[in-house]
Amino acid sequence: MPETPETPDTPAAHRRRRRPALLATVAAATAALVAGFLSWPGAQRADAAPATFVHPGVTVSKGQLDFARTKVLAGAQPWKGAYDQMMASKYASLTRTATPRATVECGSYSNPNYGCTDEREDAIAAYTDALAWYITRDARYAQKSIELMDAWSATIKDHTNSNAPLQTGWAGSSWPKAAEIIKYTYTGTWTNSARFGTMLRNVYLPEIINGSNSNGNWELSMMEAAIGISVFLEDKTSYDTAMAKFRTRTAAYVYLSSDGSVPKTVPSQNLDTTAKIVSYWQGQSTFVTGLTQETCRDFTHTGYGISAISHVAETSRIQGQDLYGTDVGERLRQALGFQSKYQLGTAVPSWLCGGSLTLGLGPVTEVGYNALHNRLGIAMTNTQTLTEQNRPAGSNNLFVAWETLTHGDNPS
């Protein structure tokens, strides 16, 4: 249909002739602005820090805590069995005495071990007591959790020796989970909560926020801790920094066929040839979906990496950003399924790790399985079998604890 003729030089005609060009200019400028904005590190992605942090919001939410509490009080399984297991553990003891050190020194393979086990286990105990408080409403457990956190925040100044980054990541993953529950659900007084936050900011965060070029489970655990600490501190800058490193490392830890002929790499590691990549992947030269960077090392360390990926994805979900719907979720799903299949006893083919695997995945499947299968409805036959077979999932005594209780078939 032809346009209605207008007198060329009237103001209305002038505006109408300019409008398409103006709109095109605005559209182009907007597109350029958006493209530039999205190219910034940490710019509004699905994994960017939320405008307002949700509390409690590190790995476990208030909704999840309420669901678990309801099930335990009703005597429903597997939650009651998981709760009983937790309460019978050394971590729930009300007579526990904290053993803080000013300097925690951890060498390779925990040699030397000056405060390393003590720190990790006190952190797990603080989290255990926080869970016990929430379910029982017995204030003694909240006070014990606070006592443990206060003892360390009054004492620790540094982590040293070769395993310092990993140790800081492990302990730093448990501390904020405990602190979030206590700070945001306990009705009593936590006088030294600010001092605890200062400890996390000054002693833990600087050790882990810049990452590591070691095996993938190191950096994944370090970023789990950094993200949890960032939530507690409501530090958006640190959250975005840690999340960006987490995304890069996750992509380099779990292989998908869509990655190409070889796995993705972390740029700072300079794995610029196939030979270097194969060496870094423990000599594995055949890459299949779900294989991890440490599958051919052993399943125990692989489990550390998988667990950290699931914890970060869960924290991100609680904070309002869905990583399960991104490649992170797909890598987690495939890693769980691949490792679960062999953990359950499937014969190992000759092309995989020379035909021999060192099993021992650990209690690390509940969080990812619940999110991907129960919430998203994805079939995960091997992971489901392994998860249900291993219930109730306990603690690995490093940074994983009681996930059948907190995440088992939990719709919240």
TrEMBL record:
Transmembrane portions of the chain: 21-40
Presence of the UniProt keyword GTP-binding in the record: no
Q: Which InterPro entries match?
A: Alginate_lyase_dom, Chondroitin_lyas, TAT_signal
Q: Which domain of life is it from?
A: Bacteria
The molecular function terms in GO held by this entry are:
lyase activity
The UniProt entry, under Gene3D superfamilies, shows: Chondroitin AC/alginate lyase
- Enumerate the UniProt keywords alphabetically: Lyase, Membrane, Signal, Transmembrane, Transmembrane helix
Asked if the keyword Lyase belongs to this entry, the reply reads yes
State a single Pfam family of this protein.
Answer: Alginate_lyase
Q: Which residues form the Alginate lyase domain?
A: 122-342
Provide the protein name: Alginate lyase family protein
